[in-house]
Amino acid sequence: MVNILTVSTQPFEGQKPGTSGLRKRVKVFQQENYTENFIQAMLEAIPQADGGPKNATIVVGGDGRYYSDEVLQVIVKASLGQGVSKLIVGLNGIVSTPAASNIIRQRKATGGILLTASHNPGGPDYDFGIKYNCSNGGPAPESVTDKIYEISKTIKELKLGDAPKIDFSKLGTQQVGDLTIEVIDGVNDYVDLMKTIFDFDAIKEFFNNNKDFKMLFDGMNGVTGPYGRRLFVEEFGLDDSSVMRCVPLPDFGGAHPDPNLTYAHDLVETVDKKGLDFGAASDGDGDRNMIIGKKAFVTPSDSVAIIAHYAKDAIPYFKKHGVNGLARSMPTSQAIDLVAQKMNVEYFEVPTGWKFFGNLMDAGRCSICGEESFGTGSDHIREKDGLWAVLAWLSILAHVNKEKPAGVQDILQAHYQIYGRNFFSRYDYEEVDGKTAEDMVNRLRHQIEKKELIDKTINGFTIAKADDFEYLDPIDGSVSKKQGVRIIFKDGSRIIIRLSGTGSQGATVRLYVEKYSNDAKEYTHETQTALKPLIDVALELSELEKYTGRKEPTVIT
Ligand code: G1P
Ligand code: ZN
């Protein structure tokens, strides 16, 4: 027996889950009862459709970042308080986000709690995050996150089991009162799943037949290190030097575990210096990915389009199940739409955040999807999946090289020859003042409402349409409003401006620009040069510098 203690508490402001769970500085979570409040609200909000918290089976995992150990103990206590019957926890609380999504589905669990702030830096002075996933393995939809927030605003009493400190460093099952805790290895199930999707022998054969082909995977000191080592070194037999930063560290070694050209700089430099053929990285919790090649950077928008193009030929999972629809987040370039049109399948444009793909996938209407923010995935799970994308690219390389030698740049150029090229870039202005950022967006919203922007021409670009993106979910009919200011020009170019929903400090302005070209002479042009005129238009229209005081973005991707 374990006593359930009743502890009085008070609501905290701002426990509103953002694009992907609640992310705050560690110090915020460390406030007395802050984490307890949120976890209890999360458990109470488990949808009745999934059976509610009582007798629930919950998968718990995370990227192992600083403060995870303490929060794991809170989850045990709160679970006892809510009558949860089983927790399935990764060894030391570590499971990548995609692997957790898989475990929820495989074990038919009620849901999952993921302890991660994804690619945000970790450590005592940085970020922690908690997010809830439902029984389909995907991030909770807004109906659930809204309920969590509502509960958090009125919570007065905590029910916490008086449990001893649980040791999560040993595999196996333990019993605490009525709660069963099973500690599992988070890597095995995931690797098994990948073997059902990809042709591991074909990839191995490709490496064996092309001994000069060199790759490097960067785990960025995050959760995917052990997964990456297992796949590339143990399964494919590559040299130890084909992986780097593959030991998960609670502070990611002080690095920013976000796979892009800025933060995965070491990888980019090594690939360049050593003339490697393929480089890949994933983020802190393993759902994001970056793909590069010899003198080649694959934008995530192109990556998902290219994967979709080759899927049925290069990846057994899609040979078997077909490609039943494609999707992208609104700011992501329209490259994948062109592939969908050619394949004659449905395609969707959803708001930013992976949670919006789940309904489409559950309904069998979306097989492959992606976001410009280095998120790529498919309906094998309900999260984006970094290593899946890397394996997809290796499968494409293996497939294409059966015909003739081709590297990443050749695959890109071949794609542009068929579809044209969607130049795309995102400018991030981090930690700007929240109020002025809101004012800047509101000014644009106001101009849109008054229809002041239509037919305006700047730098030769004429505005055809402007709106604040609104999404009607075709499956459950829910409507998500104010998902980003979108300005579309007569030539199909687009500018999008929205505020980040994952930051933990101040506001982050995201500015996205896209320009399409079907002039073959332009396919090798450098992205920033190709987009410069459009970026100037975006800066002029938004008056970004005036509002934020920033001359340069913090990060360009
Ligand atoms: C960002 C990305 C978004 C992604 C999310 C979680 O959200 O833009 O595409 O789904 O991280 O990885 P944002 O900070 O823009 O709200
Ligand atoms: Zn992530």
From TrEMBL:
Q: State the reactions this protein catalyses.
A: alpha-D-glucose 1-phosphate = alpha-D-glucose 6-phosphate; O-phospho-L-seryl-[protein] + alpha-D-glucose 1-phosphate = alpha-D-glucose 1,6-bisphosphate + L-seryl-[protein]; alpha-D-glucose 1,6-bisphosphate + L-seryl-[protein] = O-phospho-L-seryl-[protein] + alpha-D-glucose 6-phosphate
**Keyword annotations:** Carbohydrate metabolism, Glucose metabolism, Isomerase, Magnesium, Metal-binding, Phosphoprotein
GO molecular function terms attached to this record: magnesium ion binding; phosphoglucomutase activity
- For the Alpha-D-phosphohexomutase alpha/beta/alpha domain, which residue ranges apply? 15-157, 189-292, 303-416
Gene3D superfamilies per record? Alpha-D-Glucose-1,6-Bisphosphate, subunit A, domain 3, Alpha-D-phosphohexomutase, C-terminal domain
One GO cellular component term: cytosol
In the Enzyme Commission scheme, what number(s) does this protein have? 5.4.2.2
**GO BP field:** glucose metabolic process
Q: Which cofactor does it need?
A: Mg(2+)
Checking Pfam families in the record gives:
PGM1_C_vert_fung (PF24947), PGM_PMM_I (PF02878), PGM_PMM_II (PF02879), PGM_PMM_III (PF02880)
Q: Which family does it belong to?
A: Belongs to the phosphohexose mutase family.
User: Which NCBIfam families does the record match to this protein?
Assistant: PRK07564.1-1
> PANTHER family attached here?
PHOSPHOGLUCOMUTASE, PHOSPHOHEXOMUTASE FAMILY MEMBER
> What name has this protein been given in UniProt?
phosphoglucomutase (alpha-D-glucose-1,6-bisphosphate-dependent)
Q: Which organism is it from?
A: Mucor saturninus
Its taxonomic placement starts with: Eukaryota, Fungi, Fungi incertae sedis, Mucoromycota, Mucoromycotina
